[in-house]
Amino acid sequence: MSSKGGGTALTRRNYRLASDTDKPRSTGIVNEKLLSDYLHHVFPPSTNQAPALASLRKPLGFQDLGAHLEKLLSEGEPAEDSRDEAVEGRLGPQPVVLDHTSGFEGLLFVDDDLLGVIGHSNFSSIRATTCVYKGKWAYEVLISSQGLMQIGWCTLNCRFNQEEGVGDTPDSYAYDGNRVRKWNVTTTNYGKSWAAGDIVSCLIDLDEGTITFCLNGQSLGTAFTNIKTGPGVAYFPAISLSFKESVAFNFGSRPLRYPVEGYLPLQNPPTADLMKANKLLGFIRTVLSTSIDTQEERLLEREFTGWRLHGEPTVLVTLAHIFNHFAPLMCKVYLVEDVLMNFLLGILEGGGSVDEHPLIQQLLDLFWLLMEDYEVSECLKQLMMSLLRAYRFSPIIPDLGFQIHYLRLTTAVLNHEKSRKYLLNNVLFDVLRSVVFFYIKTPLRVKEAGLEELIPTTWWPTHFDKEGKDEREPSDESADERLRRRAYERGCQRLKKRIEVVEELQVQILKLLLNNKDKTTGEASRYIFLNKFRKFLQENASNRGHPTALCPPEYMVCFLHRLITAVRMSWDEGRRQSEEAYVPPQLFYNGKVDYFDLQRLGGLLSHLKKSLKDDLASKANIIIDPAEIQASSMDDLDEDEESGAAQRPFGAAVGGALARPSWLSSPTLGRANRFLSTAAVSLMTPRRPLSQPEKVKVRTLAVEQRTEDDIEGSHGNDGLLLGRPMEESEQPIADKSLLEIVDGIVMMYNLSVHQQLGKMVVVSDDVHEYAVALKDTEEKIARCPAKRADILDELQKSQKVFSEKLNHLSRRLAWINATIYSKEKMLDVYWLLCVCIRTIEHADNTGSLFAFAPEFYLNVAMNAYSALKNYFSPANSMEELPGYEETLTQLAAILAKHFADPRIVGTDIKDSLMQALASYVCYPQSLRAVERIPEEQRVAMMRNLLAPYEQRPWAQTNWILVRLWRGCGFGYRYTRLPHLLKTKPEDANLPSLQKPCPSLLLQRHMAELLSVDKEMAASFLNSVLNQLNWAFSEFIGMIQEIQQAAERPERNFVDTRQLKVCATCFDLSVSLLRVLEMTVTLVPEIFLDWTRPSAELLLRRLAQLLNQVLNRVTAEKNLFDRVVNLRLPGLESVDHYPILVAVTGILVRVLVDGDRQG
Predict the structure, then answer these.
(1) How far apart are CA 965 and CA 942, in angstroms?
(2) What's the maximum distance between 2 C-alpha atoms anywhere in the chain?
(3) What residues are paired with 186 via a beta bridge?
């Protein structure tokens, strides 16, 4: 039996039972009459032949089965010549693809199948290879991103450029769901807004001269009538799209998702093959539902879902004959989607868990047994691609039925071990954007998603304070409000339960991929997944800004949450507590895990290996080969050249240049795969403290080449945990593979998840803004005089618009709260925060080796805390998290210790730590956490804050000291600047300051340090006075320029940037004065104790500076006065009050304490 698929020379497997010598023996298992009955039952004659009586039927055996089957399949097949006949009304080649040779304008990435496209310039256009001039035609566009695109039809005469695309020229027509308009030179409103995951159908009727568009199968109405037709006019499918937007076309190479009656797809469906495939599937169904009773010599009907592959020769040989024809057809994408996928989905229709459907497992066994490997591979690849497409582009309905449907089949297929490993190795990360399987899209159109039925009652906060914050306690709300809120919460719970079903299936898929017990057919799934996952992270870390390789952040968020759930389940299965999870520090320096080019705390890896090689040898028994140091230094020199080049092959040992990114066929300028090329280290296996360590070379492997032994280790080899420092326990905390996945999760959060969490808060901000506007409108309606019906009418219209918008947004917010900001998601981010804190603590214990830790661990610790505090409230409160206060204290200790840590060299990470500490001391809860850290650490922190300002960025440390003082100074308890309340008391949009929360404990530490260490006190105060002198002089210079600009007769505007700098210099001057006030109050002896050598000099300098400030600020109608009275936007904070109360505070303290001491 040879394969008929694609003219390949590969021969089909020989099934032993079908060889000539075995025929009598095999047919002897069932007698000839029974076999003939069985075969006639499985392969009945076609419907147009009258079924012959059993007695008159010609006996049928395996010898004749091949010919019989050929005859059955050829019946009703169209003649060869009619098959390739051109359809009238269409011109161009089949299959229909995008014209990547001459039919485009601008820069575009086009997929290998010539059906997917990504814009890579301002406004690029491309058309298809086939056009139509008569009849009714349709094609579909799968929207992958919801940005600016114009989709439709154009003629060959249309000339596009970077500004004009489809719909901007006379003979082109387009629909744009981003701006909700239709285009044909001019533009008008049309249709609905589209979202990523929608399908647009483009229909043209050249007999009537109309163009219509549909969104997810719903017609948007006729867009254009009387379009130009006639001789010489033919229309091509075309699209124009802006930078980074992406779509995929379906001209008919796959079944149209939403076919429209009377309209043909541009590409002919494979009718003959479809007919054959459906017949063959019918034969397979009959085999599965028929059993042979050899004792009774009769055939029995049974339910085919319970069928098992028992190796019955008769059944196997029959199936082998069917698969001889069926297998080649299953390599074609149209047939896989239309025939196979629908058949498998039908098997799962009955409901129940996926494990209750063993038939799919049996069928996959059958595929691997009876099809060539290349056929099964192609079939599985096409099946997964079809499932992913179907999952991604299915509309959202209230019970999420479509998504559940496709995820269950995906789970059933991945349950099959051999298929799972093939897909993991070759498809899931290499060909597909498989992360899509873990994404739940947010519906843009609430009504179509059925959220109105699911959440019939909407609710939003209605009582606000002056800041616009919701201030009403639940006990204060009216009975009607309470009923509405509870009904809304019940609706949210119903929605959450439905979403949880999908999330559970997604976690189930990841659990299958994390299986490390399936070693019977080669390497366990988890190790294949781990290597692919690492490569996925590399693409996203090193191709920042490259549209083809980056995974969209909204997918990353969902993937992160499902992965955390699956990893924690796997972790807990090993009878270890995932609550205690952290990443051991040796992963950062032993070279076993690739961190690509991500920055380390101590700088470049090559530099660290040179400068810390003795520490590595003494603390971790790792010996660096001098040749490696030389090679890695040279490598850093090449860094700049390499980033400009397209791909630099790195040699087989390092894995060669990066392949295509893991879901796109578009060409991409990838970085060379640098796994371990700069991190080859020599390690020593046993710990022998006294004897000379002996060198053991580590294998330098590309990510994909690592095996289970390289990760988990084996006898005398610690795997990923090679080079254990003395401080780490010998007992591993979990499977080493899980440690690397946790490390990857932290990296993922850093890459794009945090930004996305911040982005989605916009919806709740919108709800808040509209709620404030609605309340304001209702108050105006209540105050509106009865005789002004015109005003009342306008106000009621506004009220209606705001109410509708709030109804829509509150339902959308319910969806976002369930998928992104739920309590469970908050616990995931909190777990990640705790992992980072423990990892940093363990790395810190290794002393100088802490410099090897990647910067992103500190970033994630700070960002995760910020997300928990700012993004998840008010729906979920941070106080409810387990061990919340202890975690706050641990994070406070990290910030306090590391903001001035000499082991950290990166300026960006230092700034981030300083800002995080400044924000930490602003809020009462986190400030109390700083006060709870050990006294020794608190004192060290204050000493670092008081270090002289000259050698470092001082503004941030000054803000921190000011925040510790606010609430204690003279006239320093305000939350709104008093001079602003005087002029604009009603304006609620003015900036408000954080409520004061001074720290008396930290003030005491500061006082002790300054009074004991006289030298430090003098240098600190001198530097504060120097900075004050500079800041105030700069401020005066700035206001002189502003005054001159304002006095010029010609109308000119002061640069906003200049105003901003001016306001900043003023704020700095005020805050430096406040720090002086704090010092004078806490340790007056620095200025007034004449036994101190620097006291007189400091007091004199202080008096001079205060004199200068008072001269400039208090004189009537002087420069300062005039600029304040200009009331320029941006200079609201510049006024007499803030600076004069600070100066007064200093003078009062000096006078009071001077009297006391004098």
Answers:
(1) 13
(2) 133
(3) 184
| 152, 173 contact by CB (below 8 A) | yes
CB-count exposure of residue 807 (10 Å: 0-12, 13-18, 19+)? middle
With b meaning 16 or more CB within 10 Å and e meaning fewer, what string describes 963-975?
A: bbbbebbbebebe
Q: Facing residues of 181 across strands?
A: 176, 189
For the stretch 404-444, pLDDT in tens is 889 999 999 998 888 998 898 888 887 777 888 888 888 87
Q: Are 200 and 175 in contact (CB under 8 A)?
A: yes
Residue type at position 866: S
Structure tokens at 470: 């919701």
Write the secondary structure of 643-689 as one string of H (helix), E (strand) and C (coil).
HHCCCCCCCHHHCCECCCCCCCCCCCCCCECCCCCCCCCEECCCCCC
Residue 896 near residue 937, CB atoms below 8 Å: yes
In the block, residue with structure tokens 């954080």: 994
9 backbone dihedrals φ, ψ, rounded to 5°: -90, 0
In degrees, to the nearest 5, what angle opens at C-alpha 517 toward C-alphas 697 and 583?
55
Q: For the chain, how big is the Rg over CA atoms in Å?
A: 37
Confidence of residue 188 (pLDDT cuts 50, 70, 90): very high
Question: Which segment of 137-146, 665-674, 1132-1141 scores lowest on mean pLDDT?
Answer: 665-674
Quote the tokens at residue 895. 């910030």
Determine the Cα–Cα distance for residues 377 and 366; give it in Å rounded to an integer: 13
Q: What is the mean pLDDT of the segment spanning 388-403?
A: 85
Burial class (CB in 10 A: 0-12, 13-18, 19+), 23: middle
CA–CA distance, 843 with 904 (Å, rounded to integer): 13
Write 256-259 long-range contacts (CB < 8 A, 24+): 256/138, 256/140, 256/201, 257/140, 257/199, 257/217, 257/393, 258/140, 258/199, 258/201, 258/214, 258/216, 258/217, 259/138
Pairing of strands 136-143, 264-265: parallel
Give the C-alpha separation, 426 to 891, whole Å.
42
| DSSP per-residue string spanning 243-302 | TT-EEEEESSSS--SS--TT-EESS---HHHHHHHHHHHHHHHHHHTEEEETTTTEEEE-
Residue indicated by tokens 């814009």:
119
Alpha-carbon distances, residue 57 vs 44, 50, 53, 743 (angstroms) = 11, 11, 6, 69
Which one, of 137, 275, 264, 155, lies nearest residue 212 by Cα? 137
Residue 54 has pLDDT above 60, yes or no: no
**How confident is the model over 342-358, as pLDDT tens digits?**
988 888 886 666 676 78
Instruction: Determine contact, residues 95/71, Cβ cutoff 8 Å.
Output: no
